[in-house]
Sequence to fold (317 residues):
Amino acid sequence: MQDRSRFAPTPSGPAHPGTLLAGLLCWLDARSRGAHFALRFEDVDPIRCTPQGTRDMRTALEWLGLDWDVESHQSERRAEHEAALARLAGLGLLYPCRCSRSQVRRAGTRAADGGHRYPGSCRERPLDPVDWLRCGEAIRLRLPAGRVEPVDEGGLDLGQDPAADMGDPVLLRADGAVAYHLAVVVDDAADGVTRVVRGRDLATSTAIHVVLQRLLGLNTPVYRHHLLLLESHGGKLAKLHGAVGWEQLREHYSPERLCGFLACVAGLRPTPAGIAPRELLDGFDWRRVRTTDPVLHWTGTALVERTKSEIGGRVGS
Fold:
């Protein structure tokens, strides 16, 4: 049976170096295995995601030299998402929540992902039996207690008691948008995904995803979580941290030169000499991919990797 893999970016802003490295590693994994490779736009957030953002993301990935077998959009799967919610509601596992983010933060309990664990304030509230999908409040999953031990192909420890370590997740936002945890699980199953390659920032979500898969009777794919690109203060290099966008990058880099730089910081090549993604396929091996997270700095004309001594030892990996 052919493996099926996917790259699932959120088109909420320009592709940046972290986006492009994640796409490259996911593409290399799929193409080196002869797997079916899908590009799925995680565009269920109607405020942050726009058609222009989707077009820009697609163009950026094509510019780097990546291709895919099929393209899909989370926003087109509303019926499947609502069907999954209805099944969970039928199991008595959903409840409405009126708590604001500030109220959750004030509870003062840290979750495994560094955020704030939901304290369960609304856990015993019942769903409206008639129109709970449009009740105007967030809908949360009442997680069953117990430890879950997902397997990461790279050896990362994903074991967790999601109810205790993360708290009940929102599956449907108060504005009616489907939340990430539900959408990603439903869409992976709909796409027949057998391999999920994604950044380590999503590792703490895996146990919740496995719980949802079991509750919905869905298969669990193989997971592999890879390195992240960090900014100088130790956080993930991302749009919110002012990461340089791909359109600015292409003013100073050819696709091959940027691919070569990304391959070098990922540990796949000893030097950042220009190379096309297809030239990296021969001999691609995850054992060559570094497990520590490099720190990048944009000088205004070039990306450079910074060492711990240059940033005062603030980054621990």
